[in-house]
Amino acid sequence: MTPPVATESLHRSLGMIDDEYHAVVTILGREPRPAELAMYSVMWSEHCSYKSSRAWLARFPTEAPWVVVGPGENAGVVDLGDGWLAALRIESHNHPSFVEPYQGAATGVGGILRDIFTMGARPVAVWDPLRFGPLDDSHNRYLLDGVVRGIAGYGNAVGVPTLGGEIELDDCYTANPLVNVMALGLLRRQQLVLSAASGAGNLAVLLGASTGRDGIGGASILASAGFDEASGAKRPSVQIGDPFEEKKLIEVCLELYRQGLVVAIQDLGAAGISCATAESAARGGMGMDVDLDAIHLREMDMTAAEILMSESQERMLAVVRPDDLDRVVALAERWEIAASVIGKVTEGGTLRVHHHGEVVAEVPAASLAEGAPRYLRPYHQPDDLEAAWADGPVLPASVDVPSSLLRLLADPAIGDTSPIYRQYDHQLFLGTVVEPGHDGSLLRIKGTGKGLAVSTDGDGARCALDPQRGAARIVWEAALNVAVVGARPYALVDNLNLGNPEKPEVMWQLIEVIEGLSVACEALGIPVVGGNVSLYNETAGVDIHPTPVVGMLGLADPMPARPPRLDRAEAGMAVWLLGPDDGDDFAGSAFARVVLDQRRGRPAAPDPAAGRAVVARAIELAGWCPVLHDVSRGGLAVAMAEIAIRSQVGVVVEVDHWQDLFTESPHRLVAVVPSDADLDGAMPGRRIGTVGGDAIDFGRHGALDLPKATAAWAAALARHLA
Amino acid sequence: MRVVVSITRKDGLSDPEGATTAKALRQLGYPVGEVHFGRTITLEVDAADAAAARAAATDMCTRLLANPVIEDFTVFVSEGEAVR
Amino acid sequence: MRVVVSITRKDGLSDPEGATTAKALRQLGYPVGEVHFGRTITLEVDAADAAAARAAATDMCTRLLANPVIEDFTVFVSEGEAVR
Amino acid sequence: MKVAVVVFPGTNCEQDVVHALRALGGTAELVWHGDADLAGADGVVLPGGFAHGDYLRTGAIARFSPVMTAVDRLAAAGRPVLGICNGFQVLCEAGLLPGALVANRDLRFICRPVHVRVESTASILTAAATVGDVLRLPLNSYEGNYTASAAMLGELAATDRVVLRYCDPCGAVTEEANVNGSLDAIAGVANAAGNVAGLMPHPERASDEILGSTDGVVVLESFLIALRLAAVR
Ligand SMILES: Nc1ncnc2c1ncn2[C@@H]1O[C@H](COP(=O)(O)OP(=O)(O)O)[C@@H](O)[C@H]1O
Ligand SMILES: [Mg+2]
């Protein structure tokens, strides 16, 4: 019996355009079978193939002597010295989280962790940069609440601490929230495992959960399509996370690596079995024979296409030598993890799939994994952009500083974020030295004198005004965030969240963002070791702001014995402001948004020389300063308020102009030091005040009572999460 | 008026709690097949009659008590029969 | 044979889910009094008849499914009536 | 003198407990839940985590693990048995400790430092502390809300078995300080003999200056002292 041939309209319902269908016909030299078409449709989706962005991603600087694995594998890996490596990765789960916030976010955590332990690393921390619409809308609150519960529910139970994140609120995220997740893992050098299948005759063993109709046409297609049509119709494809299964899977995999029992391993994410088999075979230049009947199904009547596309969570595909199979199975049994041999590595590069005794697919593995069309989509700068740049924010002649500061502190994206991070276990593994609630979080590498700092940063509002400068500035901000706990910027991962790339303006944003990130990384001398692109973040034709989000890894060597914290200011200490002169930088600032309600103008470009100098100075000061804090959202006024509130002691600070209090000029740093310390010299800086009293006191610009400031700051987000 | 709402996960979605409990029961020697978890919420509703109570509870389920994306619910009122 | 086990919190012990949900419902304007949360576990039990299934499920509840310190349970089998 | 630290599938604080006990000079080893004996250990710690995913109920499935028979035996022999967080929940489910732990009052996971007041020094949990001491310990749980019947509560009070209560930094037991809504602000209890005890906060996470507090040391030391005492008796 000849297997049925896919009808031509099937490809359209799978989200493939006619040209792509014809490309498949050319590759195969015949019409594809339904299962084959299903595989191409998911593997060639934007989400899996990066077909619109790949050409531009080549721009990123990816090399440094400490890079062990750069972009392209499941996670980037860098060398920390002392035999330790770190694996890092960032991912988005935007669309699934809009459909079902708890499960969408939970499975986002599960997915990113698999990327980490696939490399041989033990996942040690997670971060969650989040973006929603304004919280006076009840649905936005519902989404935020569900997402945070989902991250907590999964992250806590799987036993990986969540060490920080970010929250930004803007109308453009109302129907398209952004849920990004970053994870970090640690491993000994000899434990590094890659995904390239090798050795004809080796076995492909599927480990973990059973396969159901989860996310069919889910992550990959959801993430690759405009959003309005997706939400209603695709609901049955929601995936349910099982952190217990994942926890066992982590332990089994780490033990398999320790005993040297896997040749290669690949997690099953978007596009499930199709992706895992095709990618590991293609990376090893091999083929694979896969038997779908050997797969442990949750629902009996699944078609070959459904099995191949299923995105059931908590599954891994290990390639093992036949002689080791018994030990692999025994180990899996000990941890109550299902293990079944579903295939065999073959010579020749063909991926052959059997189901019910028939060959349902027979395709070149590399054509699935790497053969997707590349699109050089047209791009151009928005016509009205230069006019908008010229039309900067209009500043009033004078402002009421205390009430403006109060409004900023009461903004839910600026005030206290502990209602989020208190729901996350951030202390597991006895590693957390600086917990969330400061700038970068800091964890120690036990048994060494070193620490790792991480900060995740994004700024859609500023990137909307100038994607290139906005993107560059988040890199500099992240660098300073890790520097203030004593860490040197070391490697970056990025998540590019943008709208519909078929619009030339969005393609232009993508290119600009990549340029901005690249230039900043080059100036810092750090590599981009991985990333993720999430396109089609649009609803009813309206795109989100271009929203790159970065995860900066910093290496603290040595780790400060008492790293700076926001809550260590004491009466009598002196306050210094370090960095370039203030200048007026209000385009895209929190002051412009919250107080002036203006979103226009052009943010200043970063200054690499000044940026490097401040970062270096911060690392030095972190060795002994009680408090070091970068000046970011809300400017100097908010930075001082955060120190005063967290330390519960007033501050008295003098500046010339009210603008100096709210400008967000980059590369500036507040240091609180013993009164006799002299920070003059190494770089521009001046003493601006003293710690003491019970107000955030700006002299002739007015003062805000500390209790009043504290109450507004504490309630800012909490009142929306009650 | 007492209303009981029974909430179950939609068919086809995985049920890790059920699966884990099934495994534990089998290990204890019980011959069980599939196991599924659900929730019940018992409410005292201030309503004129059963129909009004049912309507109110249905509304509560849609808005708050159940998650329509992954759950189905059934409302029971003491006098009446189940409706979906 | 299908068995449904309904598990509820013993009277007088704290039921934070119920209390919080009651508060949330009242905030949304629903006239609700007490709200109590319970769980149902639906089991396929391999048993000769309803009585055997009920006995097995009762045993499972006593040993594993319910916590006697804080919970009561009721076993329902499809043909039979509820017993406590 | 050896401590067994039990690992159930889903346990995640086992290494932390071993690390903290060793730092205090203890000898600690991991024991798999499927093992029927405790490898000659003189005492046992059930560490935190999510044994069996905490599915069904926290601690419910774990109590049937083969290792729990050995834990029962050790407890009956008067040896120290300590449950931390999820381990406390397992001991309650196993009937080795009274009461049960249900969802936090606000139905949210709580990760924050809390203060607890030492109410009794009659058990292995706080033998080395002083009544009235206030300890600052990390709390990390969703189901940390202690509950028991009124009769049981009366018995606990009458027999000096409430070991720790949530309090404010000055030691006052207030509604606000009782962050998870526990009955009578109970954070830790013991059995009648005092050799089995459990608490919700994590003493091992407060046993190193660089992590912000060393107030947990007194709890782990009490346990280690009890271990030695039980062996000489
Ligand atoms: N969604 C979140 N999840 C966890 N922690 C968060 C979240 N949002 C903010 N935080 C934490 O709150 C602190 C302040 O965040 P943010 O203001 O974004 O810092 P910064 O301006 O230094 O980048 C950080 O420690 C951060 O990790
Ligand atoms: Mg900062």
Task: Kindly describe this structure.
The complex is a heterotetramer, with one copy of chain A (722 residues), two copies of chain B (84 residues) and one copy of chain D (233 residues). By secondary structure, chain A is an alpha+beta fold. Chain A is built from 26 helices and 28 strands. In chain A, strand 17 (488-497), helix 21 and strand 18 form a beta-alpha-beta unit. In chain A, helix 7 packs parallel to helix 8, helix 17 (401-409) runs parallel beside helix 26 (706-718) and helix 20 (467-483) packs parallel to helix 21 (504-524). In chain A, 65% of the residues are buried. Chain B is of the alpha+beta class and 84 residues long. Chain B has one domain: Mth169, Chain: A (2-Layer Sandwich), CATH 3.30.1280.10. Chain B contains two helices and three strands. Chain B has a three-stranded antiparallel beta sheet. Chain B is elongated. Mean pLDDT of chain B is 89; it is low at 80-84. Chain D contains five helices and eleven strands. Chain D has 233 residues and is of the alpha/beta class. In chain D, the strands form two sheets. Chain D has a nine-stranded mixed beta sheet with strand order 2-1-3-4-11-10-9-6-7, sandwiched between helices. Chain D has a two-stranded antiparallel sheet with strand order 5-8. The two termini of chain D are 13 Å apart. Chain D has one domain: Rossmann fold, CATH 3.40.50. Chain D has helices spanning 14-23, 67-76, 86-93, 150-158, 217-232; strands spanning 2-7, 27-32, 43-46, 81-84, 100-102, 110-118, 134-141, 145-147, 162-167, 186-190, 196-199. Classes of the chains: A alpha+beta (722), B alpha+beta (84), D alpha/beta (233). Chains in contact: A-B, A-D, B-C, B-D, C-D. Chain A binds chain D through residues 149, 152-153, 156-157, 159, 242-245, 247-248, 251, 334-336, 418, 421-430, 432-433, 444, 446, 561, and chain D through 9-10, 12-13, 15-16, 19-20, 34, 49-50, 52-55, 108-112, 138, 140, 142, 202, 204-205, 208, 210-211. The complex binds adenosine-5'-diphosphate and magnesium ion (MG). Residues 128, 130, 164-167, 417, 420-421, 436-439, 441, 455, 457, 481, 632-633 of chain A line the site of adenosine-5'-diphosphate. Residues 439, 481, 630, 632 of chain A line the site of magnesium ion.
